[in-house]
Protein 1
Amino acid sequence: MRKKIWIPSARLNDCCVKALSRVGVPEDQIKLTLQVLLTADLQGIGTHGTRRLIPYIMRIRSGLIKAAPKIQITAPAPAVRIIDGDDGLGPVVGMTGLNEAVKTARQTGVAFAGCRNSNHFGPGAPYALAACEQGMICIGGTNAFPTMTPWGGKEVLIGNNPLFVGVPRLKGNHFLLDFAMSVVARGKMRSAAERGEEIPPGWALDRQGHPTTDPTEGLKGFVLPIGGHKGYGLAVAIDILAGVLSGSGYGSGVRSLFQQWEEPQRVGHFFICLNPRSFLPPETFHAHLESLVGMIKSSTPIDPQKPILLPGEIEMATMAKSHETGIPFDEDIWDALLALSEGRYDITVSDL
Amino acid sequence: MRKKIWIPSARLNDCCVKALSRVGVPEDQIKLTLQVLLTADLQGIGTHGTRRLIPYIMRIRSGLIKAAPKIQITAPAPAVRIIDGDDGLGPVVGMTGLNEAVKTARQTGVAFAGCRNSNHFGPGAPYALAACEQGMICIGGTNAFPTMTPWGGKEVLIGNNPLFVGVPRLKGNHFLLDFAMSVVARGKMRSAAERGEEIPPGWALDRQGHPTTDPTEGLKGFVLPIGGHKGYGLAVAIDILAGVLSGSGYGSGVRSLFQQWEEPQRVGHFFICLNPRSFLPPETFHAHLESLVGMIKSSTPIDPQKPILLPGEIEMATMAKSHETGIPFDEDIWDALLALSEGRYDITVSDL
């Protein structure tokens, strides 16, 4: 069991600013990076939070991520923006895309920003939140290095390509949906294997493509997509929107953040922003949205102790608390972040 | 076992034109309706094809669907169109929305059409196909009358709100993804019950909200969403985009095509169209798309007899064959369509 410690968010922020600054990331790009990764930590999705600075900074030092990229924005059509990330940090490229889509949608009602030559960009929820805080609905996605097979296949070729949707609510309790196309993360199979437990049917196939409930076999094999062919199809659709359409990598052309150290990742993202004010008077939009939310929240739960939740409810509640409680870290991860902030790069972490 | 007969598509078309014409649907709206429903039949998704004219026409005769609605199109922002369907036939309102989004995206690169006061609009695949045939990528969705519970709930409140994506390919073998948020259609549970078979875990809950493998209990209970909370969240997101944002019905405010005969359905749809030419030169876009398709199609299948399929591949192949083979119908459904074409409305059908 790794030791957990709780770090105040201001201290974490300072540490990350120093670590990024030391490897040459400009101040404005540090802000964008931490807007994503620190928000992820605050939202309780620390697996995709500032701990990812460790591989990010390793890749900067290996020349695979540019600390100070020349990001280019083009406007090939009134409601379309293309962001060429020049192999910059994923959250920098991603937030640039999101903010361009928000700005454009204020004029055109809906806008699409495609990002190419980017890197791992963290989780989707902080982008969805950033859109909501600017009053925008956002539908976004990213491709990712392949971890799933095509449906009916036994060759890893498709990323778990997350999709996220944010819808702004009046009192800030925003609707934030963010999910990957795999039924579960591989981490859950690792945990089951460590505990010596079986995994439920439908999580994974073994190496030969047969269904398995043995987590060790599942880890050697393949995680399954949600809804079988449905999740597979959606993962491919997101690869087309995020990768092909933006002119970035796609399929096996997207590299791993952790395992591939020869080339840039070539990740692609997309952001569709919608201005609700282009559709309905704000009071009508919010009245109808709250009416739908009310229907859902007041409906009968199976377990009276577990009220019905909306997507994002846990993240927004965790965020409100995290400012007081601090953010939980495995001690060796925190030590590694501290080392990076001090310019020490001889890092050992048991599990990134 | 109901008797199957095969109807040539030209004969089916004639029959449907007569049936719709008799209840006062104008010629141009008949065309739009059959562009959706007859295409669905040709694509092999007959459950959502012209047989749906039976309830559609019943609803026209009950005054719940207007045979000749005054559809209004507004342009509240450069890339946004709102279509008020005036309770017209779903495929008419839907195709009007799709075509507006296509036309607008030619100017703006991306466009969003929201449709309100519509009805059941058939399956999504024919809309995706219509967009592809015009060279456009389309992401679309519709809400539907509630058949699922919120995740963790035991009160039916959420439609299975299908999502569809179409991506045009050069030789017409378009990428067509179209899926509902439930793991399976209720029809599959009915079939299992008729055969006295169990259903797999993960398909359904019983009336009390407990997992069940008994199809009879599942039918009394609830179908589950794909990926659990993921499919639930996506169904709610689609309800917001298709229903709330367009100003249509949402949640329990969307009525059933078959079971609710007091009010119009108030279904909402949305269509996001993207012009690939606004992103990349056509030859680059198609070269990259075909490269991704090639990676997927040439990857190793689990069963060597079952090559990897892309979304839409079955539908496009079925469509190519259906023009020769005709379209399979349960005999009583065909008899009912014939009756409608002759102005006879004393229809009995064992299972619509």
Protein 2
Amino acid sequence: MPEALSSRERMRRACLGERVDRPPVWLMRQAGRYLPEYREIRQRVGFLELCRDPDLAAEVSLQPHRRFGVDAVVIFSDILLPLAGLGLALDFRPGPIVENPIAGPADLARLEGSVAEAIAPTCEAIRRAKRALGPDVPVLGFAGAPWTLAAYASETRLSRDLDRLTSLAWREPAFVERLLERMATIAAETLRAQIEAGADVLQIFDTWAGVLAPSRFRRFAGHALAQTIAALPRERPPLVVYARGAGHLLEDLARLGADVVSIDWRTDLGDAAERVGVRVSLQGNLDPAALGAPEDEIRAEVSRMLDLGRKARGHVANLGHGVLQHTPIDGVRAFVEAVQGTARA
Amino acid sequence: MPEALSSRERMRRACLGERVDRPPVWLMRQAGRYLPEYREIRQRVGFLELCRDPDLAAEVSLQPHRRFGVDAVVIFSDILLPLAGLGLALDFRPGPIVENPIAGPADLARLEGSVAEAIAPTCEAIRRAKRALGPDVPVLGFAGAPWTLAAYASETRLSRDLDRLTSLAWREPAFVERLLERMATIAAETLRAQIEAGADVLQIFDTWAGVLAPSRFRRFAGHALAQTIAALPRERPPLVVYARGAGHLLEDLARLGADVVSIDWRTDLGDAAERVGVRVSLQGNLDPAALGAPEDEIRAEVSRMLDLGRKARGHVANLGHGVLQHTPIDGVRAFVEAVQGTARA
């Protein structure tokens, strides 16, 4: 067993497939409504307002680290923040609503303005969180993947299975390709700004890639993801790609140039490790709903997950999707403690 | 090449893996809003009212057969119709809303009343459609799978990824098991009544099974599906099971006792055929959004689908999900003609 590592070093090594003392653990959407200290702030401040206030965004990002000692602090922001700065009228009620979606080629010209400016509060929140945490705890920045950004940008309210964008991709593929190209530059600019602000790890969320068949993924979402990743500096922090409901795209996701593929709860972690081999590390993948189970069951599920994770090149323990709103705090604690080996079991 | 078969015999043989002249073809949700003759009727009659009017339901079921000559007529109804007859206050706006969901064990007693009575209009519509069609065209009846029925029954409006029911399954598994058991009897009664009315093929829709990891599927949705199928008569029409987003459950779906597994557009049909072997036939799986593409592209996609389908024990050509509302009629026609080999290409 190697000596105990700092969370930052543990996270870096797990992402790159180097030796670690134990898997690092954090939770997607770990700063959120299931925490009373978060809800307390949100009583006073709207969601977008909170994203745009560097002090409060840093504070909210740090809350779950204070409570659970997770191995990474994910900065509080939203993947749509850059789009809101580029002239899209974005609101949350509570799901995202875009009043003026990009419906055709002529609308693309409307996407002007500075991405760097739009996400300046997030970058400032990264700096403040890093100052508060010191060098041992990594701060994770993130961006939406081009396909997922295009999904929100092209529709007022998302249809189930993303019917509108997938239909558009059959009917007007050239337009969808141009839209994705624009979204790829936005995603890359978002990540570059966060690298400059000091982000230690990056994650790209392709929440909606899973609706595509593999050949459609390669032509649209995957192509634009690869463009995004290629536009990052050669020397960059470890990069995670998350896609929801994308077990059928795993081999494709592993070939994009990312260091880690984050899989959802539906894909067996052991099978995934066999399928991707040593090409990437894996992140995930406990069912977020499982955190409502009795604690001994959570510990058993974590134990199974860690066993399967050992088959991967490297494993970052996480959920298969974001923490659900009604998750009990003790369930989150049991999850983190079980990974960190401090469970009272 | 065997001699030309009737649609009914072609469908039966494809489902059971016997030799056919060509794959039969029909479309899920083939009677619906993309058809002007359907919209014309719906201007006068609400959705539930239409389901409950045997004359109109039969008429609407026959419309796509008249227009496209599909190989099966699926009866117009809704998987929630039996629940609406058992005291659940169901409305469509346009998605289903249940005002008085089954939230806990005490609510189960509320589910009383006769399933046979609730779906009597559907059974009568089956009889009328069969009289109109004669013996050569099969009529397909259907029911919702227990897990999918439980999803709608237990929540006013479905949450994304079915968070509420999946959480409940971790928190109160005994209640969810009882709920599923009740839903399994409802699904089986629905199918038995349709068999008696003369349905030539049956399909069970497990629209929401795909949110479950394989082990959870086996314990909950799959177990209840197997119960449903076991409760059908030994001598029964061919049975199809459809699950959306369930590529990760394919082997499990093939082991339930159904004759056909209907796969969605995300799963490669050739891979699926290898995975299930000769255990079941496959149905599907063109991307419904592809029907908006130029017709030569639709023909190319159909040709690819039919090639892959030849690897299966039997293949029923279909979409990977229901026809989308804004689908062009010419796209549907191109799809059907391409399968039936009458395309002008």
